[in-house]
Amino acid sequence: MRWNLVNCRRVNISVLPCLLVIIICCNRPPERFSFGRPATQREIDSVNISITPDGKGLPPGVGHVAEGKALFIAKCAPCHGPTGTEVPQYRLVATPNDTTHAKAIGNYWPYATTLYDYIRRAMPFNAPGSLSNVEVYHLTAFLLYSNQLIDSNRVISARTLPNIVMPARKWYVNDDRHGGNEVR
Amino acid sequence: MKQDQIKRRTLLRAAAVTALGSLVPGLSARQMPEAAPEDPTKVPGTPVGRLGTRSPFEQPQKKASDISARSPLQDFYGIITPSDLHFERSHNGVPRIDPQKYELLIHGMVERPMVFTLKDLKRFPALSRIAFIECSGNFRSGKTTMTPQEICGLTSQSEWTGVMLSTLFREVGVSPKATWFLAEGSDAAVMTRSIPVRKGWEDAMIAYAQNGEAIRPEQGYPARLFLPGWEGNTNVKWIRRIELSDQPFMTREETSKYTETIKDGKIRQFSFDMDARSIITYPSYPQTVEKGWIEIRGLAWSGRGKITSVEVSTDAGKHWHVATLQEPVLDKAHTAFRYGWYWDGQNTEIMSRAVDDTGYTQPTLQQLVNARGTDMGGYHLNPVTAWIIQRDGTVLFKPEKFR
């Protein structure tokens, strides 16, 4: 009787951790749940409009300053002014000798590819996504020219756009603050 | 100048009409409360209803500008922002998204590009977390008649529920070589930000609920990216696509905007963490106080961790006293503080400064100017905010010039 009790206890004590281990194991989430479905290349391509500074993602086509100017007057000037300088809040042009302290493409934007990407995804503000890829190239060319970053005869394409050196690029630094007792 | 302003307003109105609809719906419908009965025990009350209501005597409201709407910090109790008072900032209006059609695509440097419906997202393990979201352009100044809402109302706090992004990262098999991911919204701005993958593994969430119900349209319905402690804009709302990459995309919102000029002409980019900050919300403009005991109250928060202390000065910064922090004191969360003060009725200035668990102390505006220069940009400004208490009991904001 006495022995039995002891034995019982011994069994309990040794089995319990084992049970616990089993319970914990079975409750651990799997590496994968297999929810969701695989994406097809076609559906990825239909929404993947991102562009990196090295030009990856830029579509085919070429843009010309003259065509860009006409488009700008028709579709952008109502909000940004005919030369992109008339509306201070939404100024798009700041040439090297600009004295207004405005931050715009010419003196603040570090990458030319951003211009293509942004116009294509967000402008014109009242009809976003309405421009063709080639129209976006034209407008990009015109705005780069207006900011005195390219000549009027320069053609803008997937090949040329990433090579345009933006004057502000050299001023950019990564945030390297990590808290602690300092103000920067 | 005046003409410019008119021009801007006109264009914005044009944009608003075409793209945003009326910017401030409901504001005109602001009602005066019905008179309360003389004795509420003598008349039957309103029957039960399907939705709760705010007392008509309480009318907290967001303050809307053309592009954002600020939370009424001075009206809050505790640390949770009522969902309909959560601040709002969007870059081309609030989209209307059918939850049945909603999909999140994750692709790029992954083993298995995948599409998740809202239902799929909700099947994954769900986590909840209380934390603030603050716009990084959250400091206004310039005149004495400004409320906490007007000074820094672009911060709010909710309990967010969703699936951890790390769970989805495992599901798609994110390449160990991926260092950044692009988060893209399905609004009319097709908002995009590049985020270090590290944050995705650490504590990022795809949130679909806010304060116990589906996330509000203004906050990203049906799902948004939630990056605890990081500048509001990176918490991409209405998220539709995540693309893993080995470089940042340098979108407009991380170059032309959401970067700040600092000293020597430098421009700081990828300033993700929101620095520790606090503000006294009572007493504040336009409240008035009476001589005697006053419980100074406010909110403190840090995007880098927990608030460890808040100090309050009632003599224009000469002496500082430790305030009481109200539990819970959560990581990357608004924390309520209070300090009992006997006001002798004389002119003075009161202010608070927050310290977080990295040892960072909220700076004065002057310290920020000294560190960043007079040309410093408007993002990531978190200065100590002072209120002037005048002998007649009126309270005014103390604006400091810095440009």
TrEMBL record, chain A:
GO terms for molecular function: electron transfer activity; heme binding; metal ion binding. Residues 63-147 form the Cytochrome c domain. This is Cytochrome c. Keywords: Heme, Iron, Metal-binding. The keyword GTP-binding does not apply. It comes from the Bacteria. Pfam families: Cytochrom_C. The keyword Iron applies.
Automatic annotation (TrEMBL), chain B:
Residues 91-250 form the Oxidoreductase molybdopterin-binding domain. PROSITE patterns: TAT. InterPro entries: Ig_E-set, MoCF_OxRdtse_dimer, Mopterin_OxRdtase_euk, OxRdtase_Mopterin-bd_dom, OxRdtase_Mopterin-bd_sf, Sulfite_DH_SoxC, TAT_signal. Keywords: Metal-binding, Molybdenum, Oxidoreductase, Signal. It comes from the Bacteria. GO terms for biological process: sulfur compound metabolic process. Its cofactor is Mo-molybdopterin. Residues 271-382 form the Moybdenum cofactor oxidoreductase dimerisation domain. GO terms for molecular function: heme binding; molybdenum ion binding; molybdopterin cofactor binding; sulfite oxidase activity. Residues 1-29 form the signal peptide. The keyword Disulfide bond does not apply. Residues 27-67 are annotated as: Disordered. PANTHER family: SULFITE OXIDASE, MITOCHONDRIAL, SULFITE REDUCTASE. NCBIfam families: sulfite_DH_soxC. This is Sulfane dehydrogenase subunit SoxC. It comes from Chitinophaga jiangningensis.
